Each structure stands twice: as structure tokens, then as C-alpha cells.
Amino acid sequence: MPDLQERIDKVRLRLLSAATKCGRSKAEIMLVAVSKTRSADAIRHAANNGLHHFGENYLQEALEKIDTLKSLGLDWHFIGPIQSNKTRQIAENFSWVHSVDRVKIAQRLSDQRPSDMPPLNVCLQINIDNETTKAGLSPDQALLATKNILDLPNIKLRGLMAIPAVRQGQQAQQKPFSKLQQLMDEINRPLDKSEKLDTLSMGMSGDLEAAIFENATIIRVGTDIFGPRSVKQQ
Ligand SMILES: *Cc1c(COP(=O)(O)O)cnc(C)c1O
Question: Whose CA, among 86, 87, 95, 194, lies 20 to 30 Å from 105?
Fold first, then answer.
């Protein structure tokens, strides 16, 4: 799949170039390939091109691919909406969950994380532009939720995730990412060093440079790695 390799190389170059421009190391930034709607075969090719972290939005679809590809030892990130009756399978099959938007979900993930697995890495999803169409906690809700979630034994609260409204131009795109960074600083201020959040999951195909400038540590890229998704399943 020469196209795939070219697209991956291009995204890696964009990551490196943005990081260099703002004085960061590319090693600080994890690239998660968003593989919703893609076949197990496409993921295998991406893995052959050096990608290791894959993001999925739909649990049933993800579980099939995780099973098919289990010999590759990939790390799977759950980034979609979470229904409480689905938490067990998420806790059992993923390394990261970016879309926790209620304390109750965090509690269930901790209760259901198998004891022989390392703690599940968790980010709180923040509705940073306060959009009625989007999931996520408000900044105030996140400040309150943090205390309860930090005490849960089998998950590790790593940071914040957001999907801002679409904006044109890097400067405009940086604003909501800067807000997310400030919220993480505010959450971290009273915390002990060992508890401090260290992850900002932000930036997708259209705004990854803006996110890197505002200290993203994980970017989640689908379209610019795998090509356009069919309109039916965004
Ligand atoms: C689909 C999706 C992405 C990837 O978006 P692209 O624009 O295709 O790069 C990232 N994060 C989440 C939560 C998504 O649902």
C-alpha cells in the first residue's frame, strides 16, 4: 500500500516540523492512528509502517479488529462515546480511554479492569467550546471530578481530551487548545507530583499543528493517515 506509507510519512513530517518550530521534541508527542471504519488489513499495513497506537470509536467494530490483530501486540485507545454497559469490554481490551465524561464511567472502568493488567490510562473528555452537540465535561465539572477519579485504584488519570469546533487558520485553532492546557494546569496546581496529569490528547488531521503548538502530547489522526472515510460512517 504505497499510498498509505506516503500519507504516514507526510503526517510524521508535519508532526516533526510543528514540534521543531515550537521547540519541542517529537518524542514527546504520541501519534494515535484513528482506525474507525477501517479494515483489520489496513491497520496491519499501518502497523507494518511503524504505527503502534490505534484509536477506535465503536466498541463492537473495535473488538473484532483487536481479536484479529492480537498477535501484533498493538496498543488500543478507546476514543468514542461510552455507554455504561460497555465498560467491562473496554476495561479488558484497551490501554487507553480518552472519552471518560462521567465519574461513574471511571468508577466502572476501575472496578472492571482485570487485576493482571496495568492500570488503564484515562483522559477526561472536555467540551471545550461548550457545544450542545458534543459530549464532555465542562471545565468546572472536570475540576470537581478529578479528586474522585484520582482515588480509583485500577485506572491512572493521565490528562484531558477535547474535540474543538472547526476553525480556519492555525491561530484561531490554537485558542481552544490553549484553554485545555490552562485547565490542566489549574487541575494540577494542588496535586502531588505523582498525581499530576501529563497528557493533552488534542489535534486531528485538520489542526494537529495548532495542537502541537499548545503542547499536545497525543494527536489523533484518521483521515490524513488512512484517506477519506465514507460519508455514511464519520
Ligand atoms: C474520527 C476522530 C478523530 C480523527 O479525525 P480525522 O479528522 O479523521 O483525523 C480523532 N478523534 C476522535 C475522537 C475522532 O472521533
Answer: 194
The finding on whether 57 has its CB within 6 A of some atom of ligand 1 is yes
Contacts of 85 (CB under 8 A, 6+ apart): none
Q: Is 53 in the pocket of ligand 1 (CB under 6 A)?
A: no
Q: What is the pTM of this model?
A: 0.97
Domain ranges of the chain: 2-226
Q: Which CATH superfamily is domain 2-226 in?
A: Alanine racemase (3.20.20.10)
Q: For 65, which DSSP code?
A: H
CA dist 6 and 142 (Å) reads: 39
CA 211 to centroid of ligand 1, rounded, Å: 14
pLDDT in tens, 111-168: 999 999 999 999 999 999 999 999 999 999 999 999 999 999 999 999 999 999 999 9
